[in-house]
Specification:
about 270 residues, alpha+beta, five-stranded mixed sheet
Amino acid sequence: MRRFAVAVGLVLVGLLAVLSTGCVDEAKYNAVLLRNREQDKLLQEKDADIARLQERVDAMQARAGDAQRMLDEREKLLAAVSQERDEVRKAFNELMEAYKVLAARGGGGAIPEQVAVEIEQLVREYPNLFEFDRATGRLRFASDITFDSGSNAVKPDARAAITKLAGILSSDVAKGILATIIGHTDTDPVKKATTVALLQQLGKPTNNMGLSVARAEAVAEILKAGGVEASRMITQGMGEGQPIADNRTPDGKAKNRRVEIFLAMGA
């Protein structure tokens, strides 16, 4: 509008100049009017070009901002993964030290046959909950069946099975058995607000390492309540550091979310 007013002003100036001569030349008048119309049209086109260029600049700035945010998120993720890797390494070293303590007690032998048979019967009672490898003394609990997502609260069926396992391990024939309880997760980061709040309340790191430790300790508490002495148990979390399947598939992630109990004879 401002440029249009200027154009109109130029037309008036031209007219005044013509009128001042005392003679009006219609051809000159029309020529001045045409030039001003052309100039006004050109100014409007330039304004439109500038507006389009500004839109492009704004879009480029927005994309640059998104790219920077992505880079920042990537740096944060790398830092978190690096920290969790260090925690896994530390946890593994601590676990090895714990194994040395067990070995110093004279442990490491196979569990008694009667105990193995009773555990195998328990597996048949809860076929989808856990599996037992007699050769290694390993019980592997499926986390998705044992726990709700992002929680360390043991589900009722799993609690019932672990309580029965405690009854087996607290019997006289099993008194010499030591249990190492290890929690594992998949690679999905801890994001749920309720999970973060839970881990903070427990004084655990708000990541997969913290969640794996909390779940291992939850299983140990049920065993302890069922009569297994705390001195016979070691708990540890490995986070996502020891996968047994491909974390790029849902099935692989489900297998990696687990709690394992290793049983061995002590002194």
